[in-house]
Amino acid sequence: MNKKIKKIAKSIQLSPVIKKRKKNNKLVTLASVGIGLVVIGALAGGNDAKEEVIPEEPVVEVVKEIAEDPNDIPIILEESQEPLAVVHFIDVGQGDCTLIESAGQYLMIDAGPDESGTKIQKYLQDREIKKIDYLILTHPDSDHIGGADVVITKFDIGKIYMSSFVKDNSYYSQLQEAINYKEMGFEIPKAGNTFDFGDCSVTFLQAKIYDDPNNSSLCFKVSAGDKSIFFGGDMERQAEIDLVDSGKDLSATIYHVSHHGSYTSSSKELLNAINPEYAVVSCKVDNEYGHPHKETVDELRERGISLFRTDIQGTVTAKISSESIEWSLAPDQDYIGGDSELEKKYKEKELTADLENSATDAKEVSAKEANDRDVAAKEASVKVESIDDGSKKDDLAAIGAGAVAGAVVGNEATSKNNKESSTAKESVQTNDVPASQDYVYIGNVNNMKLHQSNCTGKLPKESNRVYFHTLEEAEKAGYTKENQCKNCKPYGN
Ligand SMILES: [Zn+2]
Ligand SMILES: [Zn+2]
Q1: Distance 477 CA to ligand 2 centre (A)
Q2: Which segment of 27-41, 133-147, 212-226 scores lowest on mean pLDDT?
Q3: What tens digit of pLDDT does each residue of 428-473 get?
C-alpha cells in the first residue's frame, strides 16, 4: 500500500468508497470540502472504472473549490500508482539473483555467481539502495552465493536466511567471512515460517535436507496482494514431489523456474500445483549445461505459460499491483530450449571425477594408513577444537562455521571453476581417515547426519566424512539427535 495514502487514511475518516479505491491503487484525489468528504476519482488504467467511483458531489464543482483555496486542502493530490512490489530478475549470467522492493523495503533472493558480485553492487547503487532488509540464500552452490560476500560487505543487511546445507568451497568460506565481518548470524527457516516486508509476505514451504545441495534448496512463496511468486532455488524432482505431497498451497502467479530451467526440475506434478501464468528463467546465454532445457521450455509452452528469460532478454522487471502485473518487456515468443544431453554429460564427467578422486583417496589412505593413525587422530581433535571456537558467538552461524571448519567435501556438483577444484583437491589431500578404533561416530558434512562408525546402512563417502570420538564432540560441530541416522541411532531411541 502506498505509504502516503496510509497516513491519510489514518488522519481522516475515509468513506468505504475511498477505501476500496485506495486498495485498488488507482489514481486517487482526495479532498475535504466543508463538512463532508468528497471523492474525486480519475482512473489511470480505467479498466474497472464502472464499479469504482460514486462521487457525492458533481466532480467539476469540487475541482473548482479546490483550485480557489489551495490552503484549505488538507490532502495533497496524489497519484497512488505505486505498485505493491517491483520484482527485478537481475541478469547475473549463469546463476540466480532476484531483488524485490516493496514500500521502501528490499528482499534479495540469491546473489549470483562470484563474478556478478560487482554487477549486483552497481545495480543496487544505481537505484540508491543502501539496505537489503532480507537476504535469502536458497542453497550454497556457487551460482547462488558467489556474489553474496560483496552484497553483505557493501550493504546494510537486515536478516539472512540460509539452508542448513553446508559446502566446503571457497565461496561458502567467503560468505561465512562476510557474515562474521558484519557480526551477523543467519537463520535456518522451517517450513511454515513467515515474515512480512513492505506490503509483501514470505512463507517458507520447505526446508528439508537431502543428500545434495540442489534438493535442499529453501523453497518459499512471496505474496503481494493476491499475486505471488514461487521460488525453489535449484530443487529437483525428488524435492518437488515431496513438496507437492506435503499438500501445501503452492499456487502462484509467477514461477521462478527452478534450477535455471533444467530438465531435472519443473516436474509436471509441481507445475500442476503452482499453475503459474508466468515463468522466469535465470541463466547465461549459451551456457554449458544447455539451460533452459527443451523439455522444460516445451512444457511451459504447452501449458500456455508466458516465458521470460534473462539469458536472451537480460534483466526483467515485473511491477505487481492488485489488478495487474506490468512487465518491462514482452515475453519470449520462441520457446527454444537447450539440449539436456549437455547437462547429462556434465554430470557424468563430475561423477567420474568424483569416483576417481575417491579411488585415489582410498589408495593413498591404505598406503599411509599405518603411519598416519596417530597424526590423523590428532588432526581430528584439532578440527573439533576449531569448531568449538566458532560456536560461541551465534548458534546458527556456528552450524555453518563449525561444519566448514570440520568439513572435508569433494567437488561441487554445479561448478568446474578452478578456484573450487583446487579447494576440492586440497580437501582430498588433508582427508586422512583415522583407523576405526580411533573414532566411534561419523558425520556427513553435507546433510549433517550422524552415524555410528559400525552403521550397517549407507555411510557417507570418505570425502564427506568427519570423525568424532564422542557425541559431545559431534554436538560441538553442530550434529544433533534429531538428525541422527535412523538405522544405527547413535543416541538410541
Ligand atoms: Zn545448485
Ligand atoms: Zn543454480
Answers
A1: 27
A2: 27-41
A3: 333 344 555 456 788 888 788 888 887 777 778 766 788 877 888 8
> Which grid cell sits at 231?
521460488
- Amino acid letter, residue 462: E
Q: What single-letter DSSP state applies at residue 225?
A: T
> 200: number of CA atoms within 13 Å, CB side?
30
Find the 256 Cα to ligand 2 centroid distance in Å: 12
Q: Are strands 441-444 and 465-468 parallel, antiparallel or unpaired?
A: antiparallel
If you compute the radius of gyration of the chain from its CA atoms, what whole number of angstroms results? 27
User: Do the Cβ atoms of 107 and 196 come closer than 8 Å?
Assistant: no
Helices (H), 101-199: 117-126, 142-145, 148-154, 170-181
Strand partners, 466: 443
Ligand 2 is an ion; its neighbours by CB within 5 Å are 143, 234
Report percent pLDDT > 90 for the chain.
51
Q: Residue 336, SS3?
A: coil
**Which ligand is closest in space to the CA of residue 165?**
1
The third-level CATH classification (topology) of the domain covering 85-338 is Metallo-beta-lactamase; Chain A (3.60.15)
pTM, 2 dp: 0.61
Residue 312 and residue 283 in contact, taking contact as beta carbons nearer than 8 Å: no
Single-letter amino acid code for the residue at 463? S
Distance from the alpha carbon of residue 139 to the mean position of ligand 1, in angstroms: 7
Asked if 307 and 293 count as a contact pair (C-beta separation under 8 A), the reply is no
How many CB atoms are located within 10 Å of the residue 438 CB?
Answer: 17
Instruction: Give the separation between CA 215 and CA 265, rounded to whole angstroms.
Output: 10
Mean confidence (pLDDT) of the chain? 75
Q: What digits encode the pLDDT tens for the residues 164-218?
A: 898 888 999 999 999 999 999 999 999 999 999 999 999 999 878 899 999 999 9
CA pair distance 229, 294, nearest whole angstrom: 23
Domain boundaries, the chain: 3-79, 85-338, 343-476
Q: Which residues pair with 88 in a beta bridge?
A: 99, 317
Does 481 have pLDDT greater than 80?
yes
Q: What is the dihedral of CA 402, 204, 125, 153, to 10 degrees?
A: -10
Task: Compute φ and ψ for 319, nearest 5 degrees.
Answer: -95, 120
Residues around the ion ligand 1 (C-beta < 5 A): 141, 214, 234, 414
| Cα 447 to ligand 1 centroid, rounded to whole Å | 15
For the record, the C-alpha cell of 464 comes out as: 564427506
Which-ligand-closest: CA of 289? Answer: 2
Distance in Å, CA 258 to ligand 2 centroid: 8
Q: Which amino acid is at 405?
A: A
Q: Report whether the peptide linkage leading into residue 331 is cis, meaning its omega lies within 30 degrees of zero.
A: no
